[in-house]
Specification:
The complex is a heterodimer. Chain A is an alpha/beta fold. Chain A has helices at residues 26-31, 71-83, 95-98, 122-128, 147-160, 176-181, 190-207, 219-223, 228-248, 253-256, 270-291, 297-300, 320-334, 354-369, 384-406, 410-416, 418-430; strands spanning 12-13, 19-20, 61-62, 65-66, 88-92, 138-142, 170-172, 211-212, 214-217, 260-266, 304-308, 339-342. Chain A has one domain: Methylmalonyl-CoA mutase (TIM Barrel, Alpha-Beta Barrel). Chain A is 46% helix and 10% strand. A five-stranded parallel sheet of chain A has the order 3-12-11-10-9. In chain A, α13 (320-334) links the parallel β11 (304-308) and β12. In chain A, α2 (71-83) packs parallel to α4, α9 (228-248) runs parallel beside α11 and α9 (228-248) packs across α15. The longest helix of chain A has 23 residues, at 384-406. Chain A is globular. Chain B has a single domain (2-131), classed as 3-Layer(aba) Sandwich (Rossmann fold). Chain B starts with a helix and ends with a helix. Chain B is α/β, with parallel strands linked by helices. Chain B is built from six helices and five strands. In chain B, α3 (47-57) packs across α4. Chain B is globular and about 35 Å long. In chain B, β3 (61-66), α4 (71-84) and β4 form a beta-alpha-beta unit. In chain B, 44% of the residues lie in helices and 19% in strands. Chain B has helices at 2-5, 22-33, 47-57, 71-84, 103-108, 121-131, and strands at 9-13, 37-40, 61-66, 91-96, 113-116. Chain B has a five-stranded parallel sheet, with helices on both faces. Classes of the chains: A alpha/beta, B alpha/beta. At the A-B interface, α3 and α17 of A face α2 and α4 of B.
Chain lengths: 431, 133
């Protein structure tokens, strides 16, 4: 090769710490590990997607985060979103509900119904979901510290309305470890909190086998300052901690692993994000199969919601966030997600209005109706760049997970705060 | 200037139930880098707790980080407590997710330094340095 006459071009390192070259060739793919982990969609190791036909068969579920005021206000917003084509619900609760306080608790003053809907009783749940067909619309509850109680309320409400709980689908976020890393709505200390998560996994495995009791959140870890590689690595470590707890209780991996799901974040470099998810699917399948001895394919699936993250949005020039949202939705579709959500453009400063929520919804629908994103599975596969970066992201992640193990495991690191300092240290560099 | 004679001592409070404390931690770090002594209260503080800490620690600045929209009701409860405890000569500052239409109300409640999300860290520390009595 010719020696460059001009000064060398600037070195580019992506957020995860991997160098990005100006050009990729077949040699780079081979040097990074080749195509061994690519496989076919719907087959182990599922790098290209957990289903054979993916969006051809069924487009992603659209599930905007919504909830405010009292249950009647929220019920109205739900119906508005469903009337506009939303296919799932993602329920926001206010902070008193999230940390298990009644609305008349003195600490709750000024917070009722502010960042989500306020729930005190089963009756509130009945009002919130009145007139909504729970078989057609799956409901995701964004609840963590108080998840055990709110899952119980949801199931009780459904049962009262005549649904068979054994057939009921839905999700609770219920990922308490990430509450200690970012977000902060924990109620109990780390160890008993994990036990409570285990209780819900065990209960659902036996009583509500189609219900997803945990959605492990890389999303908030990323929002708190983690790199895309750390986001996935720490989320996998957390999911393994819950899986270990379930196994200690005597459940077999195939009894519960198929009902674990993930919540990941999208902002930043398009290719880094897409490779993050492709690498994630292969690695999670490998972990479940090789480390946990899972046999059912469903236990090896990385099922996820990939949501356009608030961390990329800006307070100034908020209308530019609409454009960002469109790119995030594109990334999400190229990543093979099961469910999509977007932060609304005004989310950097307020609870989304009907107007802004509708723009987000239309953004996702455009990809299906006009842009052809549902026609072909994993369309970026085979790109020298994408396959190389997918391999490198997977390796990076394995290194981070090994580092967590070497330091005593994620539970210990969360309890002593060392994960939190790793993540916040990076946040400082960003601000 | 008295501020140059001793280190400026800042209480950084996290009012209410919101757990989003990354911003507060970043601001705490910036204040420390600016040479201030910072007392961070941790999450979920009541007006009573913040008043007590301000008194016990004898701080120069009472600052709050609020992300989840409860800033007005909270400050309404905090103001009379700070007044009753003789803390009106301290500098009251608030930052976080604070919509522009609330700034006037916050000023009337005694919070002269208002730093909505996106404010420069230097602007916060500079403001404190030049306004501490």
């Amino acid at each position: 090769m010719n020696a460059p006459k001009k000064p060398a071009i600037k070195k580019v390192i992506n957020e995860s710490g991997i160098e990005v070259k100006p050009l990729y060739t077949a040699e780079d793919v081979a040097a990074s590990g080749g195509m061994a982990m690519v496989g076919e969609p719907g087959q182990y190791p599922f790098t290209r997607g957990i289903h054979r036909e993916m969006y051809r068969k069924q487009p992603w579920t659209m599930r905007q985060y919504a909830g405010f005021g009292n249950p009647a206000d929220t019920n109205q917003r739900f119906k508005y979103l469903i009337a506009n084509g939303q296919t799932g619900l993602n329920v926001a609760f206010d902070l008193p509900t999230q940390i298990g306080l009644d609305s008349d608790d003195p600490l709750a003053e000024g917070e009722i119904g502010r960042v989500g809907m306020s729930i005190d009783t089963l009756r509130d749940f009945e009002i919130a979901f009145d007139g909504i067909d729970l078989k057609k619309i799956t409901v995701s509850l964004t609840i963590n510290g108080a998840a055990a109680i709110l899952i119980a309320m949801y199931l009780a409400m459904a049962e009262k309305r005549g649904y068979d709980v054994k057939e009921l689908r839905g999700t609770a976020q219920n990922d308490i470890l990430k509450e200690f890393i970012g977000r902060g709505t924990w109620i109990f200390p780390v160890e008993p909190s994990i036990r409570l998560v285990g209780d819900t996994i065990e209960y659902c495995a036996t009583h509500a086998p189609k219900y997803t009791p945990v959605s492990v959140c890389g999303y908030h870890i990323r929002e708190s300052g983690a790199t895309p590689a750390q986001e996935i690595a720490y989320a996998f470590c957390i999911a393994k901690a819950y899986a270990d707890d379930a196994i200690k209780r005597g459940l077999s991996v195939d009894e519960f692993a198929g009902r674990l799901s993930y919540n990941f974040n999208i902002f930043g470099n398009i290719f880094e994000q897409v490779c993050k998810f492709r690498a994630g699917r292969g690695l999670w399948a490998k972990i479940m199969k090789e480390e946990y001895g899972a046999e059912k394919p469903g236990s090896m699936w990385l099922r996820m919601i990939a949501a356009g993250g608030g961390g990329g949005l800006t307070f100034e020039q908020p209308e530019v966030n609409i454009v960002r949202g469109a790119y995030y939705a594109l990334i999400s579709a190229l990543s093979g997600t099961q469910t999509m959500a977007l932060c609304s453009y005004d989310e950097a400063y307020t609870i989304p209005t009907e107007y802004s929520a509708r723009i987000s919804l239309r953004t996702m629908q455009l990809l299906i109706e006009e842009m052809g994103l549902t026609e072909t599975v994993d369309p970026l596969a085979g790109s020298f760049y994408v396959e190389t970066m997918t391999n490198e992201m997977r390796k990076k992640r394995e290194d981070i997970m090994a580092e967590v193990d070497a330091q005593g495991g994620i539970v210990k690191m969360v309890a002593e705060g060392s994960i939190q300092s790793k993540v916040s240290a990076r946040q400082l560099l960003q601000e | 200037m008295t501020a140059s004679q001793r280190r400026i001592k800042v209480l950084l409070g996290k009012p209410g139930l919101d757990g989003h404390d990354q911003g507060a931690k970043v601001v705490a770090r910036a204040m420390m880098d600016a040479g201030f002594e910072v007392i961070y209260t941790g999450l979920r503080q009541t007006p009573e707790q913040i008043t007590r800490i301000a008194l016990e620690e004898d701080v120069d600045v009472i600052s709050l980080s609020s992300m989840a929209g409860s800033h007005i009701p909270f400050c309404r409860k905090l103001k009379p407590l700070l007044e009753a405890n003789g803390l009106t000569d301290k500098l009251w500052v608030i930052g976080g997710n604070l919509p522009a239409q609330d700034h006037e109300a916050l000023r009337e409640l005694g919070f002269k330094g208002i730093f909505p999300s996106g404010s420069k860290l230097d602007a916060i520390t500079e403001y404190i340095r030049s306004n501490v009595k």
